[in-house]
User: Fold this.
Amino acid sequence: MGGKTMSEEERTFVGAESARDRRRRLMSDPARAARVSKIREATAEMDRIYAMNLAMVREAAELTQVEVAKRLGSAQGVVSRTENRRDMYLSTLYNYLTATGATDVAITLTINGKAVALDLEAILGHPALPESETSDEDVERPAIAAAGEPAAQTTTAARR
Assistant:
């Protein structure tokens, strides 16, 4: 058929460098690169689990309220109340989420078209409380300052 015949070297992609070169060549086409980017974004979106509430997070982790309560060192009723709260401290949210097995806990938002992730462990200044430190009663935790306010040096009892 009159077309150029590929050499054996062109038909065989052996080793990481050959594959890397081929990928680089293919992705140099802007239209192809845009299609690949769009497919990657769609795939990431499909892999994401949307949770409308904390109970859905717990269910995605395939845990019962009793199991989460054990991890928190509290009672099942505390977990139920936490899941049904409309308002809570970030530390309560963080401890609940890590008890479900969540890692890299962050709040993600969009500002001026840019995705911003707030790392809760960094904001709170401590990792999740160990099981032995939580109970049905209030737990002393560092206060979180509102935006624009200086951070308080005192602690406040966290609502559960």
Observations:
- The two ends are 75 Å apart (CA to CA).
- DSSP finds eight helices and four strands in the chain.
- Residues 131-160 have pLDDT under 50 and may be disordered.
- The chain has two domains: 15-47, 54-158.
